[in-house]
Amino acid sequence: MAGTWIPDVLGDEFEQLTLPLDPDNEGEVVATLVRALPKKRWFRRRPLEDVDVLYVHGWSDYFFQKRVARTFTELGARFYALDLRKYGRSLREGQSAGYVDDLATYDEDIRAALDAIGSGRRLVLFGHSTGGLVLSLWAHRNPGAASAVILNSPWLELQLPKFQREAITPLIEMQARRRPMDRTPQIDLGFYSRAQAAAADPEDPIEYNFAWRPEQSMSVHIGWLSAILRGHDQVEDGLAIDVPILVMLSARSARPLRWSDDLTRADSVLIVDDIARAALGLGPLVTVARIEGALHDVFVSRRDARAEAYRVLTAWAERMLPR
After folding, report:
1. Is beta strand 122-128 parallel, antiparallel or unpaired with respect to 148-152?
2. Torsion (CA) 157, 162, 167, 171 in degrees, nearest 10
3. Most buried among 1, 52, 122, 254, using CB within 10 Å?
4. In CATH, which of 3.40.50.1820, 3.30.2320.30, 3.30.70.250, 3.40.50.150 is domain 6-320?
5. How are strands ordered across the β-sheet holding 6-7?
6. pTM to 2 decimal places
7. Backbone φ and ψ of 291, nearest 5°
8. Of 120, 150, 159, 119, nearest to 56 (Cα)?
């Protein structure tokens, strides 16, 4: 059973709840739910007062975005964020950080979160990067569970041409069956973290826990990569998410082969044109918003791009989720 809500590491109005899950071969497994609740306002109704938002982070990441939460609570929604098993607040000593061999494993994490949140209100799913892939697949498998899906640079396609992905997938699957814990070479040079630091706004500071969000990404295991590729195959086949979907992306990508200022105004993680095309196959009602100057996480971009991302998010929510 879940425990008690306690103050979260983010401080202020944020609280956290540990969600026990079934143990695996590395021992104890938990997820962690973080919440921020709207302040009561008696003098006017707000458009999202019957909405719960569930946010899921990306790879090598955890929830830290206070302003994202407050954007929703100011509209009246209850905001929840889930640190998945073996990430962030949920990572335990001796565990392989971020590792699963099937993205459907996270169904248990999401179900535990929804049980803690309770029913009877509209649910909005909000995923960043790998979290966007996880929630897209979950929404497809659970029609009617959500009222809307919001995706911040979702990882819907590998950063390779399609023919290369199709060529390497059988090799990765074969190795994943034999030696799933083998690690792939580390190709993150730390430029994405450097770009975020360069784009930081001293008037709207963000503090990271680098033990939970390292400057170079966590080790990638073959078994996990195989699970991601299977997820990409499902997206390519087409999903049937039957609710409005907002996909927010940078206007362009930049290759992180060497440092340049271009990396501070582009997505250096994904090929955004490929993601935009893949997004159109998620469901019948998809809005794709391209944010000029945005980073991979559009909400940690420079001030002008970040302001535009919040404007798009708020306008879409107010239009697509009226009371």
Report:
1. parallel
2. 0
3. 52
4. 3.40.50.1820
5. 6-7, 15-24, 27-36, 78-83, 51-56, 122-128, 148-152, 245-250, 286-291
6. 0.96
7. -105, 115
8. 150
Q: Which of 51, 60, 68 is nearest to 10 (CA)?
A: 68
Distances (CA, A) of 254 to 2, 3, 192, 312: 43, 44, 10, 23
| Amino acid type, 220 | V
User: Which residue matches tokens 């791009």?
Assistant: 305
Which two three-digit tokens encode residue 9? 């590491």
Pairing of β 245-250 and β 286-291: parallel
Q: 49-98: per-residue pLDDT in tens?
A: 999 999 999 999 999 999 999 999 999 999 999 999 999 999 999 999 99
CB distance 278 to 236 below 8 Å: yes
Tokens of residue 77, six digits: 């929604």
In angstroms, rounded to a whole number, what is the distance separating the alpha carbons of residues 276 and 249? 8
